[in-house]
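User: Fold this; tokens only.

Assistant: Input:
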Amino acid sequence: MPRIAVVEGDGIGREVIPVAQQILAAVRPDLEFFPVEVGYGRWERTGEAITSADIGTLKRAAAILFGAVTTPPDPNYRSVVVRMRKDLDLYANVRPVKGNAADIVIVRENTEGLYSGVEEVGPDRATTLRIITRKGSERIARFASNLAKGRRHLTIGHKANVIKADTLFRDVCISVAAEAGVPFREKFIDALCLDVLQHPRDYDVIVTENMFGDILSDVAAYLVGGLGMLPSANIGDRHALFEPVHGSAPKHAGKDTANPIAAIRSSAMLLEYLDDRENAALIEKAVGQALASGVKTRDLGGTAGTSEMGKAVLAALEQ
């Protein structure tokens, strides 16, 4: 019986993750769910947002369903998400952007770059070190190239014309893609962000370093209705975590207005990771049917709340 760690986190994570868990339980009653509390709410209460014991618990799960956490502007607060990605070595962040206008998969290196956590903050100067390594670049390039083999082609997004660290990333990605026999091209990340919006069907798999992938996927969300629609997977060689791309959105928490579709689609990606493509496809189909029936949350131009949207997807599953 696969054991799934459920981490609601903060803000709207506490609303959308229970909906996603309910959908998962409907198609896979054999799954065993257990909660793990991490995040800003816990930090306020106990002084610890996440512990080594929590990491150990997460490592024992078959997969992790994760909501979102709030990161306050406090120098003593270490990002929960960054720690989980590093401690679980979840080096590949996979963000599908799929809808009527696009079918793109953004593969983002997940452990290096400006999110490495190597920082110094002083009264007159703050420094964040951008780390790009050959090892990190090679394994994300291999991951993206392997994914592109089953699709069309690979685009390498970078800023090597300005940032020298990107020269290493670009060159490694080109070498790995060429060795894998994958058709590829390269594009400067700023031009890429614009062109993805103007010509989305020209793109298939895109690989980037950490921060650029974060920005690009947020930009591309425009193509499919916004961040409330985007799921993601954080995958390593031994562990995997699945989460909606949106953040904790504390201003919207507790109002039953958050769109749960990104979380529901993340649960479908979790099933794919467990080699259950059939039920993953059923969830995706149910999401499409619910939206086609006219049930939509406010971010999509509708009036449905979080729970109503979840019920619509469940009803579509039962059909």
